[in-house]
Design brief:
9-stranded mixed β-sheet; 1 helix; Maltose phosphorylase, domain 3
Length: 123
């Protein structure tokens, strides 16, 4: 159960191209049936604590993450467009520490530098 929670629900994963969690992947997967309404957890890497939390809200879902100092994360969000996502109350283009890498199909891929992040994903 713990491996499923880290890897699937919270989405804390190793980046196969960057071993050791210097760079890692965050791919949270909120329960589409909304039977599980939130998940929160962390992984203590050799670079510091990686935190991941999602929660269903009335307007969609929220995602909070902490990327430790001197690391980077690739965040994969299951949504059709960057217009559905805000970070810290601003659009992604203006969000500090966030770079849009890909926005095609049903997934948006972001690069996050060290820091605390709060995303709102509208449905």
């Amino acid at each position: 159960v713990a491996a499923w929670m880290y890897n699937y629900s919270l989405g804390i994963q190793r980046d196969p191209e960057h071993p050791g969690f210097k760079q890692f992947v965050l791919e949270p997967t909120p329960d589409p049936d909304k039977k599980m309404t939130w998940a929160k957890g962390y992984y203590d890497s050799m670079y510091g604590r990686i935190e991941s939390e999602w929660r269903w809200e009335s307007e969609g879902w929220t995602y909070n993450a902490i990327v430790p100092a001197n690391t980077k994360a690739t965040l994969r969000i299951n949504t059709s467009t960057v217009k559905n996502i805000t970070s810290g109350g601003v659009k992604l283009k203006k969000a500090k520490g966030v770079k849009v890498l890909e926005s095609e199909g049903a997934e948006v891929v972001l690069e996050l530098v060290s820091g605390r992040y709060n995303f709102i994903i509208s449905e």
